[in-house]
Amino acid sequence: MERTISILGSTGSVGKQTADVVRALGIKVSALAAESDVAALEAQAREFSPDIVALRDEDAAAELRVKLSDTEVKVLSGVSGVSECAERGETVVSAISGFAGIQPALTAVRRGARLAIANKETLVAAGELIAAEASESGAEIIPIDSEHSAILQCTQGDSCAVRKLLLTCSGGPFRGYTAAQLRGVTPADALRHPTWSMGAKITIDSATLANKGLELIEAWRLFGVSPSDIEIIIHPQSIVHSAVEFIDGTVIAQMGVPDMRLPIQYALTYPKRVESAVPKLELFGKELTFERPNRDLFPCLKLAEFAANDDIQNGTNECLVFNAANEVAAMAFLRNSCAFADIPRVIESALETFVNPRTTSLKELNELDTAVRRYSALCL
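^ thats the sequence. predicted structure below, dont judge the formating
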């Protein structure tokens, strides 16, 4: 593999799995960036010997600088340090969680690098800005999410003939629950995802189906398909990662074991395929089932669809509002500070309160994001 790589968010779940892929393929690492995990980043720096590493937390960076003083690795800090990491590598993996991932993603796109994207905020909150910059620079945006990777693989050479995207969803840990059962669920219950091993925040989002709403918005941004032409399908086995229906009625699906290393590797080697250490899919003895989601029991999905359609029809930033409010409420639930039902309540209140004219200014997007988060915290 000749392509060099920078991994932003290297100590998180996606970042660590990207490191697994990089290790297996022998890709040269140019830069690593994370939030504050000194021990994990030190270990990665010693293994991969990048030119630079960065920790957004200034104090953590100072500690790491001492620990790596016996190496030639340069340690940077703060937002500027993370952005400098985005200046390195032919491919930049964007796996920094939250709004903080947008600026370094923009940095990578503006210089024409391939952006392998796992950060949802980048496309949900600033998708129009990212798309404009990519069009100007010629940068590739390759999704890492298994569902969007599946759609990319299904549409190769035939994107103009798409009628509908079929976005699959495991249903999360509460599939089949009644309204009465949902009233008593705890964060511990929500974190027991039936098929995927992910970070805590995205696991909560999978339990509320907010994650599938965010993925619907991402699919609209990535593939230019109207939200009304994106169908959510509950598929508990997580073997069909998504499918595409074409204008002639043909449906092409992408299948594989539920392992994030597969879509990560495809994003790094695209459009080529190479051998993978991931276990192979065994279909014998497997049952594949599909059902419709219950939007009344899981209203976050309905609210995300509303946000996407409002952005299109009325020129607003409702997708950003949905994302910010959901993050505040989901993290509050994770801390046992609110009930499961409070998550969609907070999102709906924020969507009703913040109906702002669309902007592609990163400064204004950041200001709106901050205001929504403050409001959402007060709603809890």
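The chain has two domains: 5-143, 147-379.
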